[in-house]
């Protein structure tokens, strides 16, 4: 929750909540939008936990109009040059709503996985804002790096949220399994060679995010599903929200969905995702949000959302 809270322009006083709502909220504003942030309880993950948090929020804030699910996820670098710290945005395709539940389906001919059912798309208002921001980024750079610098300047103690360095961004061959307690013991000859990027500014990718009640930690399975389902990211909460609490999913990439998982990129990835969310909100005119509503930001441990609230909280 720290990264999302640090992106607020101002922090507001807490509101009295119902005893039936177990969520913990942070209130504030970004670009004239009032924001409420909720976080999954520490140590709780998965579709069911996310749905419970969203349900509590919906009861406490029935006028929520804009919903973002912001946090971290595992990248899929097999078809697209996704790197640690990059941001992946759920974006509908001709065959998907932008979010798929990859543990809900069946195995068919030749061992291919076939999805069953389809989840709702993000709200049209958010997809329109995404399209505008993508167009803006064709004309000039994103403001993610600017927002990260401001966050660090305002919060000097957030040292863990800084960029970890290209030398710590290690992508191994999908068939090479992790060895030892850390990647320091892994065979460097198994690293995938990639051209250095001209800058450390995170790239933004738009496409399909795969969600399930399990962590993806196998490089070869990641690669197979990348080709079968055309996914860019794996995560554990979004599938529990899309039908009853449609939202845009924003994930900062903290690992490569393989056995070489490490936690050192999690804070930075959470910050890049939160910075994108802040930039996205800046292109949504406050006049488009009905008076008396809010923006919801839902966060699993290191994940976020935004939502409209009541009374003096106008959007």
Task: Please explain how this structure is put together.
There is one protein chain. This protein has 315 residues and is an alpha/beta fold. The protein has a single domain (2-8, 24-308), classed as Rossmann fold (3-Layer(aba) Sandwich). It contains 6 helices and 13 strands. It has helices spanning 2-6, 47-60, 124-139, 144-154, 219-229, 266-282; strands spanning 10-11, 25-30, 33-39, 64-75, 87-90, 99-101, 105-107, 113-115, 204-211, 231-235, 248-255, 294-299, 305-308. A 5-stranded mixed barrel has the order 4-10-9-5-11. The chain has a two-stranded antiparallel sheet with strand order 7-8. A hairpin with a 5-residue loop joins strand 7 (105-107) and strand 8. Helix 4 (144-154) packs across helix 6. The model is unreliable at 301-315 (pLDDT under 50).
Compile the SSE list and pairings.
Layout: H1 2-6, E1 10-11, E2 25-30, E3 33-39, H2 47-60, E4 64-75, E5 87-90, E6 99-101, E7 105-107, E8 113-115, H3 124-139, H4 144-154, E9 204-211, H5 219-229, E10 231-235, E11 248-255, H6 266-282, E12 294-299, E13 305-308
Parallel strand pairs: 3-12, 4-11, 4-12, 5-9, 6-9, 9-10
Antiparallel strand pairs: 1-2, 2-3, 4-10, 5-11, 7-8, 12-13
Helix pairs in contact: 4-6
